[in-house]
Structures are given as structure tokens and as C-alpha cells.
Amino acid sequence: MKTIDVCLSPELMHLYEIENRTVVVVDILRATSCMVTAFAHGVDSITPVANLDECLKLKTKGYVTSGERDGKKVEGFDKGNSPFEYMGEQVRGLKLAFTTTNGTQAIEKSKGAKEVIIGSFLNLTSVVRYLLLGENNVLIVCAGWKGRVNLEDTLFAGAVVEKLKDYLGPDCDAPLAAQHLYNVAKGDMVKFLEASSHVKRLNRLNIHKDIEFCVTPDQYKVIPKLKNGVLLA
Amino acid sequence: MKTIDVCLSPELMHLYEIENRTVVVVDILRATSCMVTAFAHGVDSITPVANLDECLKLKTKGYVTSGERDGKKVEGFDKGNSPFEYMGEQVRGLKLAFTTTNGTQAIEKSKGAKEVIIGSFLNLTSVVRYLLLGENNVLIVCAGWKGRVNLEDTLFAGAVVEKLKDYLGPDCDAPLAAQHLYNVAKGDMVKFLEASSHVKRLNRLNIHKDIEFCVTPDQYKVIPKLKNGVLLA
Questions:
Q1: Assigned domain for A192 exists
Q2: Which pLDDT tens digit goes with each residue over B204-217?
């Protein structure tokens, strides 16, 4: 039986062997939700970038600068971190340079894995099918918030563990904890998340609509995948 | 309102400021359960020691060597890591030198806090009352398993958060996650923990009786407290 494990914070990555695993990076609010949305609407590529300067450098090479710091759009950037900015005809064919507080850092730490894919509730069933049919053991890497564990990424991890429970065995206690939390929350995830620190932070930024969208399963089928440091559909 | 936070693994300690907090170190299976049991039965002091050699050095100074590595008693040590070894008249007045895989490492990393106390289900209500009446914000440090998050320590953290929910506000998402898990588990914690990796590991060592005892609330009232590197009642 293949195994599934969950790394609840990028700060715990050194505890997990990733060379032979498929790593799923998740940052529900909102980096990986944006990425999935962007690919579903036809962007050409997304280059995850750890810092702002590097992102701005890529702008001179024709990339569209995207992302956030502390939940807010970066001054001088073309796009922020709301999935609604990555919809419609105008994103088709774009090359995005993307940097966020947590999500792109988690991708950075996942390099070295056998393969790295991008997960969100928006492409949940596609991710679950992909992992089921793949040959590798699985590690879900939650981006968290500045190294701390967060609820929304943990819920996504729990959803994957729950849906694969008859096929992939948990490697440790973190997948079990995530699975329990998902089963408590799944009836109304928005309500469950209302007390969460990041949702409170985001509600202050008036993006309740983003939050509702980001926890809606199966809007898209695309699975972004990292190849030579660049995400492709 | 005072705040309460939960550090789910000692590997995340650098993310938390501890100078002004009361830190509760917890290693339910079984280090902190042993420590509480030992003080309840009259040991004089427990000196937490990070490695085996240091522990054996203290033996020459009249200390009783105690603890485990990978769940098993250490060769040449006087006592192992079962709470039942720390009961009865024969432990009264002893000075213990204690080292375990996870618990004593978590204590080591908590030095520098305003104060450090030892928690377990066995002294749960005493710990809750102490935190309620104290002036400091609270951080519960889960010892985990070799850096990874475990269920049993998280449940204890959740029990404390739940019991103090009207008095101490959560600082982050980890206390909320722990609280939800405790509320799922509290009806039958032994059953809830049956799937946990550490409980499976311990069941292979035939210590089901230890596990049942270690999740029984309120057997003792004592609160061990760290003073100059030594635990006292």
C-alpha cells in the first residue's frame, strides 16, 4: 500500500524524505487557488519566485508580476492574490511571475521531490485521482502562515487523506489529525474557518468572496506541475 | 484577555516568543505523565537531561537514572518510562535524572520562558486552574515524536484550550485545531488514539495499561515546575 503523509508547516520539511514522493503544495488562501484558477483560464506558465526583487526583474522579460505580501497586493505589481484576477480571456497565454508570503516559499522547499503538483479545493478531485493512479508515496505540504500551522491548508490535506483512505495508508499522526478536522468541517467549511486567524486577517481585507470561492471543491480539472522550476498545466 | 497558543512540535519553537509566557510542556506518552506521577508519590526532584551520558554521570552523584529511548528502557538505567514505576513508597525522596526521546528535549527548548510547568492528563485540572489564575499568556509545547506532530499531545493541548475558552483567547490556528480534535476525541480517548502512530508503536511494546492510565484525567494535583534547570513539585 502506498502511503500518505502531511507536513503541516514548511518549517517541518526537513523531517520528511521527499526524493521519492509526489509532493502536493497547498496554500488555500490564496496562492495555490489562484494558480489553479489561472491555469484553468489558459495562462502559459507560472514561475514561483521567493522574493519581490526577483519578481520585478522578470517583469522586464515580459512576465506579469503577481502575488502578495501579508495578504495585500504588492505596490508596482500587475496582479494581486485574488483568484478572480486570474479569470477570463485576458489571462490566456500570459507568463506569470508569482510570489506570496507562504505559498511560493513552500514550493521552493519542495524542490528535490520526485514531482511537485499544486493542490486546492478548486481541483480537489483531479488531485485525488492523480495521486491514486500515481506510483509514488504522497506528501502534502501545507504552506501555513509564516511557519505556523493553519486550518485551511490542514483541511485540504484532510480532504485528500479522507478521500484516499481506502487506498493510501497514513504515515504518521498528522494525516490522521487533518482527516479528523476535515470530517468536522466538511459540512460548512466557511463557517468552520470563521474563527481561523488567517480568515479573520483576510476578512479585514474585505475578501469574503475569495474565501467562499477558495473552499469550493471541483471548479477546475487542471493540475499544475513543476518542471525545471516553472509551473505548467 | 490573556492568550493561549499551542506549539505542535519542538521544531516550531523558534516561531514563538516565550520570555513572557508560562510554557506547559506535554509528552503524554509517557514522559510528563511519569513526572507528574513521580511527584505525586513524593520524589524530591527530577533533573531533565537531554542525553544518556549526562544521565549516567548523575548516577555517580546519587541520582536515579530514568527514561527511555524509542519507547524502551535504556540498558543500565534504574527505571524506564512507565508511570507505574514511579508509584509507591519506594520513590519518596528520590532525585531522578530523566531523559526521554522527546519530552526532555521539549523541556530543554522551553528554557528561557517566564516559567515552565509540566502538564499531563493526570494533573489536567490543576494545570488549567494554575493557568487561569496566573498572569502570563500561555504556550503549550507538545513534545511530539522526533519533531513530528502527534495526536496525544495535541489532544492535551486541546483539552486545556477547551476548558479555558471563556477566559483565554487563541493566538493562532493551532489552538483551534487542537480544541476541535479534543472535542472529537473526548468521549473515548483510548479508542481515538488507537490509530495513532505512537500508540501503535507502544502497543507493540505491550503497554496498553500505560496508555489507558496516561489519558485518565485528574489523578493527581501536583504541578511540577522548572527552577534553575530542575523540576520541583
A1: yes
A2: 777 889 999 999 99
The whole-number pLDDT of residue A201 equals 75
Measured between beta carbons, the chain A residues lying within 8 angstroms of B172 are 145, 148-149, 197
Query: Cα B74 vs. chain centroid, distance in angstroms?
Result: 19
Nearest to A29 by CA among A154, A223, A202: A202
Number of domains in chain A: 1
Quick: pLDDT tens for A138-168.
999 999 999 999 999 999 999 999 999 999 9
Q: Cβ separation of B173 and A145 shorter than 8 Å?
A: yes
Whether A233 is covered by a domain: the verdict is no
Alpha-carbon torsion, ordered B115, B121, B123, B124, to 10 deg: 70
Contact B51, B99 (CB under 8 A): yes
Would you give the DSSP letter of residue A91? G
Predicted confidence band of residue A25 (pLDDT cuts 50, 70, 90): very high
Give the predicted TM-score (pTM) of the model. 0.95
Name the residue range of residue A130's domain: 2-227
Order of strands, sheet of B95-99, starting from the edge strand that comes earlier in the sequence: B72-73, B64-69, B95-99, B45-48, B230-232, B225-227, B115-119, B21-26, B137-142, B2-7, B168-170
What is the H or E stretch that residue A22 is in? strand A21-26
Q: Point out the residue among A11, A174, A184 whose CB comes nearest to the CB of B180.
A: A184
Q: Name the closest residue on chain A to residue B8, using Cα atoms.
A: A149
Q: Is A101 a domain residue?
A: yes
Mean pLDDT of chain A: 94
ipTM: 0.94
| Cα A85 to Cα B107: distance, rounded to the nearest angstrom | 47
Residues of B with CB under 8 A from a CB of A: 8-9, 11-12, 15, 145-151, 154, 170-174, 176-177, 180-181, 184, 195-198
